[in-house]
């Protein structure tokens, strides 16, 4: 059988959580084995009902107040103890990777994180992300079952829509968390401050790199962002120079964003930056250097000094808006 | 209370606008850009230096890698870390399971010789392999609590409080010392090495221990670039004159409507 951890937020499956279940379902079908889906924590049963893809559904630790990675791994380990499990899958999310690392450590098994594809055989062949997806690693996973894998976001389509697959029987898992399992639990959750447009939700992002030249230069970008209802982002050079706070950083060690439009001003297009913005529907690059890597990775390019181009765009926007009555927007 | 802190860092290829894989498909080509470490780990080093400044004690940096990893260790020493340990391999890549086993064993030996570490700091994930597990495996091997993804840390006498992002919210964890923390960039703003720092780094202690990490059932076969993103670039012009065309495009994309 294949076990899959279903990630959810208070009973609603996350995108990568639903995808991992779909991925696990395909693998199970290929092996001709049943799929068992496990949801843990508050809302587990609701989540299972919303993403009914498995043959058997386990809801566990419903009484535990919050997220406790080691306790979650313990619950998965208990299910392994029944035997017959060929693989355990989880989403390649912060929590999915964390819980699986505890399970791997507990069982002293290898763990292949952020897989893009898996082909069972002897050994199993898999492809996983390196450099946050800028590079693929082909690997072999031999050894004994169970095999532990996490599935990267976008590796597959989500599992079946609720109602389209037969819902399995929901079983409640007994809780065996011990004191060591409960040393690391969420003590408190501080809600978001709710100020301004967040990078993660923004439809448009105006982003600046080293080419902006300093903290003050971001005034220009703020102005353009204000006119477009956009959020302001930046590259790592900008945060390491202290021009902007780290929460504005887009990229491998910053935030991954997926706006309709990403305007990159004075950003060269390093791969660690691009993994953060490549999910944007459209990218517009403004750069003095026509050969900067980003110019070939963008949908639209303007060659020029951002200190001249951005104010000109602002002015043009104002001019066009002043004649609002005659304009389609 | 004096605090002994250990930071684990990993030597990784520096990559810029594109990644080039060597002809044999086994490695990233490092001929032009050389090597670096993760921004997460730079923050871990900065935190260790600050913690020892505040609490007293001593900071150690440790890496497992080829002899050339001395470069990353000297960099850490130039930032103000006190001593360095190199678990020296003959250059073959060690997977996360073997790496964690070697690091846990080395920490055991260091603690037996010099006393316990109150805090072990890791990066949240290595930038190249992105395994998301070495810190947790070491913590489990040593029987210590571990918080990952940490972006803010407050260390007291016998416990610490760690915050991490969860979506737009923040989670707070409170665990006893000794503990293991896997940190993320944003924890602090790391300093750049100073000239005196670099000079001092040359004479700070660096111990080398040969290791031969075990092989694993998870084995890398090769590296390759993912299928290219299909974006065709439309040039919109040069300089300020491009503004008219840009605004037309913004309109076409439907991002002007308010
Ligand atoms: C493990 C790791 C993780 C990383 N994570 C991230 C990350 O999350 N996010 C990130 O951004 N980076 C990250 N980096 C850093 C990344 O490799 C690059 O160093 C960084 O993205 C470069 O930032 P930049 O484009 O602003 O600066 P540069 O590469 O210096 O580029 C500046 C660009 O501005 C242009 N320019 C200069 N003046 C002007 C002007 N007046 N008008 C218009 N254009 C101008 C130049 O032509 C150039 O193309 C990471 C690196 C590592 C090793
Ligand atoms: N070879 C290594 N030497 C020292 N520390 C390492 C090594 N590999 C990984 N680490 C540490 O473990 C963290 C997580 O790595 P990983 O689990 O491989 O993604 C890294 O940020 C480092 O702090």
Note down, in words, how this protein is organized.
In chain A, α5 (218-228) runs parallel beside α9 (306-322). Chain A is an alpha/beta fold. In chain A, the strands form three sheets. In chain A, strands 9-8-7-10-6-1-4-5-11 form a nine-stranded mixed β-sheet, sandwiched between helices. Chain A has helices at residues 15-31, 44-50, 69-80, 94-107, 218-228, 236-240, 271-277, 293-297, 306-322, and strands at residues 2-5, 8-9, 12-13, 35-40, 56-60, 87-91, 111-119, 124-130, 135-141, 147-151, 169-173, 188-190, 204-208, 231-234, 261-265, 282-287, 300-303. Chain A has two domains: 2-182, HUPs (Rossmann fold, 3-Layer(aba) Sandwich); 204-324, Rossmann fold (3-Layer(aba) Sandwich). With 258 residues, chain B is α/β, with parallel strands linked by helices. Chain B is 28% helix and 30% strand. Chain B has helices spanning 39-55, 70-78, 96-114, 134-142, 195-201, 243-252, and strands at 3-8, 12-13, 35-36, 57-65, 83-88, 119-123, 146-155, 159-166, 169-176, 179-183, 206-210, 218-224, 234-238. Chain B has a nine-stranded mixed β-sheet with strand order 9-8-7-10-6-1-4-5-11, sandwiched between helices. In chain B, α2 crosses α5 (195-201). The termini of chain B are far apart. Chains A and B meet through α4, β7, β8, β9 and β12 of A and α3, α4, β7, β9 and β12 of B. β17 (300-303) of chain A pairs parallel with β13 (234-238) of chain B, so a sheet runs across the interface. Adenosine monophosphate (AMP) is lined by residues 8-10, 38, 40-41, 63-65, 96, 99, 122-123, 125-126, 129-135 of chain B.
Main attributes of the structure:
heterodimer, A: 329 residues, Rossmann fold, 2 domains, B: 258 residues, two-stranded antiparallel ribbon, 28% helix, 30% strand, binds adenosine monophosphate
């Amino acid at each position: 059988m294949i076990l899959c951890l279903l990630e959810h937020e208070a009973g609603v499956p996350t995108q990568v959580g639903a995808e991992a279940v779909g991925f696990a379902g395909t693998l199970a079908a290929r092996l001709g084995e049943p799929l068992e889906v496990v949801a843990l924590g508050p809302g587990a049963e609701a989540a299972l009902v919303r993403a009914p893809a498995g043959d058997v559904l386990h809801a566990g630790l419903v009484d535990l107040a919050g997220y406790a990675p080691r306790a979650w791994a313990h619950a998965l380990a208990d299910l392994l103890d029944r035997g017959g499990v060929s693989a355990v899958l989880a989403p390649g999310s912060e929590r999915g990777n964390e819980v699986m690392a505890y399970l791997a450590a507990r069982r002293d098994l290898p763990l292949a994180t952020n897989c893009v594809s898996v082909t069972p055989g002897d050994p199993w062949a898999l492809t996983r992300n390196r450099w946050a997806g800028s590079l693929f690693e082909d690997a072999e996973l031999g050894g004994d079952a169970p095999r532990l894998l996490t599935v990267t976001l976008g590796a597959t389509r989500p599992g079946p829509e609720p109602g389209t697959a037969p819902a399995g029987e929901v079983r409640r898992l007994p809780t065996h968390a011990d004191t060591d399992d409960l040393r690391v639990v969420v003590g408190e959750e501080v809600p978001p401050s709710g100020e301004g447009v967040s990078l993660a939700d923004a439809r448009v992002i105006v982003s600046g790199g080293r080419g902006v030249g300093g903290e003050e230069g971001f005034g220009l970008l703020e102005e353009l962002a204000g006119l477009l209802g956009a959020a302001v982002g930046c590259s790592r050079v900008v945060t390491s120079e202290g021009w902007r706070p780290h929460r504005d950083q887009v990229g491998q060690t910053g935030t991954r964003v997926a706006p309709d439009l990403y305007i990159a001003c004075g950003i060269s297009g390093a791969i660690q930056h691009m993994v953060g913005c490549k999910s944007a529907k459209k990218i517009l690059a403004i750069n003095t250097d026509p050969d900067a890597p980003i110019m070939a990775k963008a949908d639209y390019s303007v060659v020029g000094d951002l200190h001249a181009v951005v104010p000109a765009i602002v002015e043009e926007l104002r001019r066009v808006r002043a004649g609002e009555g005659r304009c389609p927007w | 209370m004096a605090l002994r802190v250990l930071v684990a860092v990993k030597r990784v290829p520096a990559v810029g606008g594109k990644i080039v894989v060597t002809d044999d498909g086994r490695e990233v080509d490092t001929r032009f850009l050389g090597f670096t470490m993760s921004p997460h780990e730079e923050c871990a080093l900065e935190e260790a230096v600050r913690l020892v400044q505040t609490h007293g004690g001593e900071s150690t940096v440790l890496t497992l890698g080829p002899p050339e990893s001395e470069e990353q260790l000297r960099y850490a020493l130039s930032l103000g870390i006190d001593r360095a340990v190199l678990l020296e391999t003959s250059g073959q890549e060690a997977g996360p399971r073997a790496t964690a086993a070697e690091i846990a064993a080395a920490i055991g030996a260091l603690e037996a010789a010099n006393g316990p570490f109150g805090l072990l700091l890791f990066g949240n994930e290595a930038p190249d392999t992105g395994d998301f597990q070495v810190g947790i495996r070491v913590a489990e091997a040593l029987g210590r609590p571990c918080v990952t993804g940490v972006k803010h840390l407050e260390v007291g006498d016998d416990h610490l409080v760690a915050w991490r992002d969860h979506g737009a919210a923040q989670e707070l964890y409170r665990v006893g010392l000794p503990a293991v923390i896997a940190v993320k960039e944003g924890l602090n703003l790391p300093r750049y090495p100073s000239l005196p720092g670099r000079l001092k780094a040359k004479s700070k202690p660096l111990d080398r221990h040969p290791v031969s990490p075990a092989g694993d059932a998870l084995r890398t076969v090769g590296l390759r670039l993912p299928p290219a993103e299909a974006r065709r670039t439309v040039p919109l012009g040069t300089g300020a004159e491009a503004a008219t065309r840009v605004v037309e495009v913004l309109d076409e994309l439907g991002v002007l409507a308010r």
